[in-house]
User: Fold Elongation factor P isoform X1 from Rhodamnia argentea.
Amino acid sequence: MNASFASKRLSRALLVAAAPARRSAAATAPSLSRPPSSSAPESDGTTSSLFHSPWSVLQQRGVKVRGSDVRPGNVVERKGRLYEVVKADHNQQGRGSAMIQVELRDVESGNKVNARFNTDESVEKIFVEEKSFTCMCTMGDEVALIDPQTFEQVDVKRDLFGKSGVYLKEEMKVMLRFFDDRPLSGSVPKRVICTVVDTPPPLKGVSAAPAEKRALLDNGLTVKVPAFIEGGEAILVNTEEDSYMSRAKE
Assistant:
């Protein structure tokens, strides 16, 4: 047996003999990747409750906007309270700076107040969640909605939709805005189809016939329509302005 072959066998024997010792040392050595459970700080529940839902984190945040950017449906913070913007009108007072006259609804109490913002005034706008629902039915002041994704039923007051509540009908797609899981307001589509229940018949053979006339719709609302519209016709109505747009397409 030559010296080179003997050297290789000796090295292999030494490695085999040392292997158990290495495994034993690794088993008894403390882990560096994970500290002992006894040294981990106990949770007080604050962090877990804050991050229970991603949306709960988002709702703790807002953004600064100018008074001129405030719109109906926005939720703003004012003097430590949350308000939903119901109306927002831009007014120019002579040669002075423009003002934003707003009607606000207190999220907690539901009370309405009037306020004014300068166009360049900094306003704290709060983020809200918007979800789509389908109107099942209306019962007086109550509206039954259903979530098309989860089929969960939600009952809300018609007042949440403001003046647009008159357009609510079965199978209509609507939007609800939530803050802290509480419905703040609702909105209907900008364009809806209504049926003319009653309106004066078109005047024939009259050269000075008026261009418009009043028409009573199936939801009880009265709007101005062109003179050629007749009772029983379906028309397209702008829900933001309560105005006639066109005849509904069949």
